[in-house]
Each structure stands twice: as structure tokens, then as C-alpha cells.
Task: structure prediction
Amino acid sequence: MHNQRPILCIIPPHMLREISERGTDLQQEKARATMAVSSQIRIQRTSAALTVHMGAAGTPDKHRNIYDAKQGSQLPGTLVRKEGDPPSADLAVNEAYDGSGATYDLFKEIYGRNSIDGNGMSLDSTVHYQKGYDNAFWNGQQMVYGDGDEDLPPSQRLFNRFTAALDVIAHELTHGVTQFEANLAYSFQSGALNESMSDVFGSLVKQRLRSQTAAEADWIIGEGLFTANVNGVGIRSMKAPGTAYNDPILGKDPQPAHMRDYVNTIEDSGGVHINSGIPNHAFYIASIELGGFAWEKAGMIWYKTLADKFNQNSSFQDAANLTVETARELFGSGSIEEKAVIKGWQEVGIIVGAPAGDGCLTAMMRAIGLAK
Amino acid sequence: MTKIDFVQSGGFMGRTIILSLDLDDMPPHQAQTFNLLLDQADFFRLEVDPAKPPVPDSFTYTITVTTDERSHTIHVSDTTAPEQLRPLLLALSARARIR
Ligand SMILES: [Zn+2]
Result:
């Protein structure tokens, strides 16, 4: 499972952009050669990724810390609520506390994982990051949330605070889990897979809290982030990628639901938040096929694959092959679970069992116009 | 002539926002503010490690400033931006958000 495929996806896309825009033919040739050489480099899992991930060694450790950046950019900021403290008067603080708690619970109670690192790591979040910050991120150690367009007049606001959506909180925390496991490189296909893992478990945390089956769930990511000024139901749709919003200012949801519509771009670290629509939709199809609660079977298959099989450079094809392999290991060859996962990938244009190829290299070359 | 080209990419939504400012076409007090922010950032001497990949969902920013004499481009993200650059970054993203 630790194969020898390229380390390429860690080259920052803006560097590729410079090569493609400013490079001479000779430089472009050189870039091509460098990429080819890089493809020989063996991948080493980071020591962090080797951490025991089933939490067998310790007791459950839910240690949440919520900090306030007070509209600045210093992290983590001032500690305002820690584990066991009563609710704060600040809504964003409580949302971050409850949301990271619900995410911890899914990973612990369903997948047996003790926190982000599998070893009881504290769940740290900072709210009120900067002014007018329409975003949330995982900085490698903690979650960070902005307040949206709080600094604009109400009629001009497009975004609410980013703690308003539970699946966004679970999405950010899952980036931490991924970092300690496969550590999927954050660009092109491995980056889109990284994004998709965060959407998958983000949505599952929400579905579990609402006790919704796969058929009942809305599969929207980021519901509640848009104000009423936006024509949209959320940021992404796993059920129907590309349909979450269509707005005069924000434009149209750019997500594809099928490989034929894969977007080759350098922006957004190689389209990580765009092409994630493809694996997202595969997960949705598999979940619908299986019926019942999606976190039980489909979620278990995806979790085990993330924890035990992916590496830094896994591509969509790897994801298809490896999730099916996991389904077979968990439920048996020829099982309905195996068939559901095969169908999920098939419907997004990925035939399980095809060679994995060099998804990263190809995507990168296409994005900068060096390959068709 | 001073031109500022600003591109914000990535973030949870993955949306790219582009802003081009020509300080000569702006009201003088606004142009002066941007000139001050450029000075404060020591923009033309600012070097940022370009090899650091962005952390998940952070915004990445590309800023190019072009004058009659020179042009300089930097790539930063929410976590790599030097302190001295942040006021300029905030002013640019605030302007890009005005609808
Ligand atoms: Zn993300």
C-alpha cells in the first residue's frame, strides 16, 4: 500500500503558474524533466501518520479549548472556554465547542478513534479571526473561524459566521485527522480527495446528530453560511454537485459530479474544492445504495481506507480501488457493500480496478498546458 | 504610475476573487492610504518563502505591484503572511468584498 508514486502534488500551484506563464520553452522542458525525476521519489509517511489511530492506548479524551482572536490574526488568541466550562454568552464560542464535541463523538463512538491524532489530542478552535473574514481553516494544529461579513451593512452581507454550520466545523477537524493519517498532499487530485474526506465526515457528523438516514439527509455542505442575500442553499452539494448556489455575485457552484467534467486549473491549489465534487458524489451514491445511516457502513469503509490505505499522493482511481478493497475486507467479496462502492465510483466515471496511473502528474501537466 | 493586482484564491469555498487597482485613478486620499500600506509592508523588498504549501482551506493571495520603474509579485497565505503585510492584505480583501 505504500507505493512509489510521485511526490509531485506538493509543488505549490502558483509556482507551476509562473512556469507556465513566464517560462521559456527550455524552462518548461526542464520543469517537465524535473517532474519526471520527482516521480521516482519514494513516499515516506510522516512519523505523525504512524501514530496509533485506534485510541487503544488511552481512555477517551475529549479536551476542547475555544479561543478568541478578537478580530486579529494572532493564533490561538485568548482562551475563553475549556472542557467542562459552562456555555459562554458568545454564540460562536458555543458553536465551536459543541461542533468539535459532536465531531469527536462520531470518530470515537463509531470508528473508535480517540481525537484528531488518535491519541487524545486537544481540540483547539479560534473564533472571531480577523474582520470580515469569509472563511474557516485548519492551520495544521487547530481550527480557525471568521465571522463572515459582519463588518458590512446587512444589505451587502453574503456570509454569516463560519461556526454557524456544524458540517464546516466537522470538515475542519477532519483535515486534522487526515493530516495524522494519509496526510494527502493538498493540491490536485490528492488535495481534492483530502477535501472530500472533510466533506464526507463533515456531513456524517451532521446526519448523525439529526438521526437522518442517507435518503433523508440533504447532503449539503455549509448550509446556513449564506445570508438571505445569496441565491443558494449552501457551499456544496454531495447529492448534486454543481447545484448548491447560482448567484449574480458569487457565480455558479463550479463542482463537477463526473470525471468527464473534471476541472483542470491551477487556482484553488489545483481545484481542490472544485473536483472534490467527484469523490463526494461517489460516497453519496454508495450511501444511498446501502440505505440506512451512512456513517455505519459507507462511513466505516471510507474511514478505514483513509486511516490504513491512502498515502500522500493517492488519486481518485486509488480511492476507488482502495475503498472497494476495504469493503471486501470488512464485508466480504461479492457483498452488497462491495457492490455499492463499485457503483458509487462507476457513476462518477471511475472504473474500479483500473490502474491508478499518475493522477497527480497528469492533472498538473494539464493544468499548466503541458499535456492534453 | 502604481498598479496593484490582487488575486485571492482557495478558502473553504475555493472561489477566486480578482481585483485590479490603478492608484492614479483613485481619489487621492485612497491612493495615499494604499501607498502608505505599501511602504509599511516594505513591499518591494518583501521576500516570502514560496515553497510553503497553503494549509487546508486557507486563502492564498497573490499581490503584484507595478510602477514605472519596477514590478514585484508575492504569494502568501493566511498563515504565511508577514505581520507587516497584513494591513495591506486586509485593505485589499476588504475592497475586493465591496459589492
Ligand atoms: Zn477543507
Q: What stands out?
A: Chain B touches chain A at residues 9-16, 50-60, 62, 75, 78-79, 81, 86, 90, 93-94, 97-99 (CB under 8 Å). Strands of chain B lie at 2-10, 17-22, 59-67, 71-77. Helices of chain B lie at 28-41, 86-97.
